[in-house]
Amino acid sequence: MPDLTVTTRIGLVAATTAGRRHADTVAAAWPHARLVEGGTVADALRSAWAGCDAVVAFLATGAVVRILAPLLGDKHSDPAVVVVDEAARHAVALLGGHAGGGNDLAEQVGALLDARPVITTATDAVGLPGLDTLGWPVQGAVAAVSRAILDGEPVQLIADADWPLPALPPNVQPRADTHGDANTDGDTAGGGYRLLVTDRVVPLDERTAVLRPPSLVAGVGASRGVPAEEVAELLHRVLAEAGLHPASLRCLASADVKADEAGIRSTADVLGVPLVTWPATRLAAIDVPHPSEVVRAAVGTPSVAEAAALLGADGRAEHATLLVGKTATAMATVAVARHVPRGRLAVVGLGPGAPDLRTPRAVAELRRAAVVVGLDQYLDQVRDVFRPGTRVLSSGLGAEEARARAAVAEAAAGRAVALVGSGDAGVYAMASPALEYADERIDVVGVPGVTAALAAGALLGAPLGHDHAYVSLSDLHTPWEVIERRVTAAAEGDFVTVFYNPRSRARDWQLGKALGILAAHRPLDTPVGVVRNASRPGEQVHLATVATLDPAVVDMYSVVVVGNSDTRLVAGRMVTPRGYRWRS
Q1: pLDDT tens digits, residue range 373-389?
Q2: Radius of gyration of the CA atoms of the chain, in A
Q3: Which residues form the Cobalamin synthesis G N-terminal domain (predicted)?
Q4: Which residues, other chains included, contact 42 with Cβ-Cβ below 8 Å and sequence gap of 6+?
Q5: By C-alpha distance, which of 551, 464, 553 is closest to 508?
Q6: What is the second-level CATH architecture of the domain 10-120?
């Protein structure tokens, strides 16, 4: 969920004492929210509408509707409006649900005021992705195609390439005969609906919606002082003549020496895309069809527009095709390249188990994915989050490498994939094996989670208040000699030591051996905490010392935290002093 409260100007309107109290709560928490005053409440509401990106009205819904009805224009330009009742029981997303961020704002207002968000957008209500929420421009018969998806009517998905779309319901089926073909004209005979994913200009009708993927990069070269109008006119002419749509521009690209060229930069700003620049040495290394010695003499590379278009946003020229060679006017040059899509692999940490310790970003990535891969018991925790149509690849204990390979293979095929692990996916979990196989065909998104040490530490008190080390006692993949050396180093360094995978039925001696190593370097009365099933049903907390801990109370669902020589018990809680000088 985007944080609208940081960058969005939010106008707050209230009439009663209770409403103003709720508005004050919002204004105190959000830096871009302010109470809007006026001669009357209606005047204040109109002022907020005219001067803010979003409005939160602490008024009756009917009153807000009557006041704002004459002001309604277009959902893409009108501000979002959320209405909160007098008792702050509900936060109603009234206007701008998707396009204006009203649904997200209602969620965030609800979280702040402990109010229930009320969202009536049909796709949100049934857990389907709205076509205007995918992060790409969408055009054509968006409402009609969205309704067809909701109603279960057949919808043809016709894509130029394997773009990592989120899960779509079973009634949205790809049409295999056009995959990889830029000709998406097709027909809608028999009353069918179509969802096209293409960067090409295509004919639209009342049953066709078009998603514009970010596939195009326009390389731009220019003389110093080039007018923005000349750059923009050339760019739009080149795109139009090639049958390409500007909404699919990922970025403009040029040479570093053009990074401050106002005509290029303002064109990028108007288009709403970034300007990416490359050093002349990188541009000169790209093989282009129309090199120029004149350009080389001027900027140190035989090509700016073509080479920059091929390098694109991430420097992967080998995965780009030059669609339009350099085309020039008196002061500007433009070339256009198409970049192949990359699959998307989100490595998601689910936290220790409790739903309220699962991050909003983790939930968003699970709902963004078309394929979710993970251990069966972890997937069972989050199946209620998946969108209809999500393909789930589950497996049992001990199949970590197979899960990692499966997730990478799905992403390499161009799909949006989430690979889940418990705690933080980068701590003794799935991120490491997956990223060993992930190559440049894949965009990787890491989603941090609350790892077991943090969940256990919070239950024990503050045992991790100073330097600490994590050590896994599993010797399935790491020889015991290596583990023993690491435990010894932690003991000699007087680190608080957290043991993951501390003991199982097949590995019942390693924990005792590790405790013996620590006991040789710190007092025998050093506190030890064992947390089993942190934040899950059956949660248990056990306190002991290095001398008294019975390894039999520990299993694979446990985390063991051994204090350092300064760790002590305070009111039954483990505390490792930070050593602040002011304490002395």
Answers
A1: 999 999 999 998 998 88
A2: 29
A3: 44-124
A4: 67
A5: 551
A6: 3-Layer(aba) Sandwich (3.40)
